[in-house]
Amino acid sequence: MAHEHKLEIFRGLWKFKSNTQKIWGVLAFLTLVTAVEVILGIYKPEGLMTPWMTPFEGGFFATLMNIIFSAFIYMKPLNLIFIILTIVKAYYITWDFMHMRDETKALRRMVVWTAVFLICYLIFILLQEGGYVFEVYNADDAIIKRDF
Amino acid sequence: MDSTVANAGTDEKTWGGGNQPLKASYGKMMMWFFIVSDALTFSGFLAAYGFSRFKFIKEWPIADEVFTHVPFLHGQELPMIYVAFMTFILIMSSVTMVLAVDAGHHMNKAKVTLYMFLTIIGGAIFVGSQAWEWATFIQGDYGAVQTKGGNILQFGENVTVDGKEKFKRISIDEFAIHHTTERAEHDRSSGLWFVTEASLPPYTVGEIYDGLAANENILVRTQIINENGEKTILSREESLKQIKENGKLVVKGANLHVNEYGTALFADFFFFITGFHGFHVFSGVVINIIIFFNVILGTYERRGSYEMVEKVGLYWHFVDLVWVFVFTFFYLV
Prior knowledge:
The structure holds 2 protein chains of 2 kinds. Chain A has helices at 19-43, 60-68, 70-73, 77-97, 105-138, and strands spanning 8-9, 14-15. Chain A is mainly alpha-helical. In chain B, strands 1, 2, 3, 4, 5 and 6 form a 6-stranded antiparallel beta sheet that branches.
């Protein structure tokens, strides 16, 4: 079995001479990302603690815009950055450490698309429901009392 | 492989068998599909955590206030440092694993042995750290009072540090006033043999109340998060009133029923998800040890391929991948 490795990351921006070198390169990148996460987590910059956008008010289109930009309206930018950096890390672990980069397109899609689709579905259903239960508990006319 | 694959002499035809359209062996493909299903299991857990968190979004514990300990550095509040170290250890062991796989491709037995050994050490350090993290969490640090409604009330005082007003937590051990009339813990040999009782909390609510009344500086903090993203601090009168009227149980540390840091669900999910992940790491270490001995014995040398190392490598990287997400959702977000 021949073991051919694609020896570049960042779409060819960073090229390596051997597979071993690529591994150390990816480690350096992952360490950097983790360090950024930890530093942001400790210092929590003031500007990243409130959402960048306020919800749109009005009719149907405002609701639509609120859905499209939900990540910027309902989420602290800091948390958004953490989640994006996590997905970036996950990408490099799967692509370079697990050699997904070197597998056939069919195998890659079978694994990644299936998982991504089902996970998005799970997240949507459960978070939507959690938000709904919160509304039930905290509405003005809520019958459930917990402040005792 | 050739000895196990039946050859019907139909090699020329597409559907004649013996094709590998994915160019991956059966074992490797099945490892990938197992990883997909395991990833869905973990996503289910993490999404359930998200569900409970969204449900109690206004009162969820703040991770930075819960995980502040680092071994050998007693009494210092250093959030994030230890988990960052754990994350680095796990990524590092992923690197040694991938180096072992690479050495396997070059049929270099000595290097595979070395890198497999380092991977096992990394995994062991991680599991050990996890155990320490659990022990610290179970033991707790400041203690709190749980109300009749199941809410948590914590104690502290306002102090000025570097010109800034800060809320400094105070341990219940520091101010509780011990009463002499203590209730003995029920045990089966001296009472009803069919009734058991968990160990009694260190103090009664009455002892905490007396201590609070005697120390003018101590205030109560509820679990409700205010507009500034901080937990609400009650006034002195309100503090006394809350403990007197609603206080029910003194809590120290965390378990599956109560949790001094806030809602009990937080501890439940912490134990369940990090426990399930820790179990994966543990089984990964066990599998790695088996493979390590096979490498030493020369099994793969004789087989002519180190693909087995690659397969356990996939599992090991997956464990690392899951940790990246657990780290984000438990400690960062």
